[in-house]
Every structure is written in structure tokens, then in C-alpha cells.
């Protein structure tokens, strides 16, 4: 058995403490875990207990990192998992942290998709919204359910407004109506609108019936 000879709060991070065993620095732990485990100086501890404590501490660090990430901006489950992997956390502590956040509704792909669709439908069409959400790891079932709520007339009106703004910009340097309309077509298609919506918006903006 080894003995904890000193527990010292770190100078640079007051939330963590350095643990000394047999008068030598052994590892650092969050103060939360030091308190939770009831660690004290002159207390005997074995290596296996240290491993268990360190594992729990890694989970707490991972969980707190995850919380800080979602505090800055709402994330999909995949986005959060990818960020935690990049920060070097192990799969077990990542999954445990994500389960915690899901349990307390800090992350929810349903809520994320709902907000994303509401926000992006003001500037993008259904195709691009769906494509981007798939890249974020959202299931197609969730995506389809949400984008089906986009009002068809509202989508056409948004496309028209975007086309009008774009028209006012490119009309300053392009006088050929056909070329101008083709640029509008490409612009709106790149925004993820279907052909019918694009055609409606372009014809309304350019006042051309047959393009």
C-alpha cells in the first residue's frame, strides 16, 4: 500500500489538485473528485484504486469539456463526439459524457435539427439543408420530418427574395438577360432549391416567361 503524503491545489488551475504519494508527485485530479472520493493526506491507497480514480477523473474532464463546447454553440451528437475525439478523449468516456448530456437535454439531434431547419430555411433550400444535416450525423428520418414542415409558399418567397438581391448585384455588370438569368439559376440551385422553385423565382425577378 502507498500513502498520500500531500494534496496541493494547483496554482494555475484552482479546480484541480496535485496528489503526492510517498512524497513524490503522482497525478492530478479535479477538486470535485478529491472531495467525492474523500482523499486525504496520510491515507493509504493502492495502485488499482488510483487507476479507478484517474478513469473517473478523465470522464469528469471529458464531461466538462463537452459542456463547455455546447455552451458556446449547440451541436449535433456527431459534431460533439468528433470534437471530443480531437481533444484526445477515449471512446468510453466520450460515450458516457454524451449519455449524460442527452439525459439532461444538453444535446438532442431532434432539437438541433428543428432549430437548424428554422434558421437555415431563411437562406437555403431543402436540398442543401438536408445535405448539410446528413454531414452533421443527423438521421434522415429526423431530417425529413423537420424539412417537411417548411411551407412551400414561404420557401418560394425566400428564394425570390434571394434572387432579387442577387439580381440587383449582377445586373450592374451583366446586361444580357439570358446570361443574367442563368447566373440566377446557378446561384439558387447552389442554395439547395429544387428546379421548380428556382424557375419560379428567376422568372418572377427577370420577368421572363421562357428561359
Automatic annotation (TrEMBL):
- InterPro entries per UniProt: RecX_HTH_1st, RecX_HTH_2nd, RecX_HTH_3rd, Regulatory_RecX, WH-like_DNA-bd_sf
RecX second three-helical domain location? 108-145
Query: Keywords, A to Z?
Result: Cytoplasm
The subcellular location is: Cytoplasm
Major location category of this protein: cytoplasm
User: Taking every annotated instance into account, which residue ranges of this chain make up the domain RecX third three-helical?
Assistant: 154-202
Q: In what residue span(s) does the RecX first three-helical domain sit?
A: 62-101
Q: Does the keyword Cell division apply?
A: no
Its family remark reads:
Belongs to the RecX family.
Query: What function does this protein fulfil?
Result: Modulates RecA activity.
Q: Which PANTHER family match?
A: REGULATORY PROTEIN RECX FAMILY PROTEIN (PTHR33602:SF1)
Name of the molecule in the record: Regulatory protein RecX
What is the species listed in this Swiss-Prot or TrEMBL entry?
Clostridium gallinarum
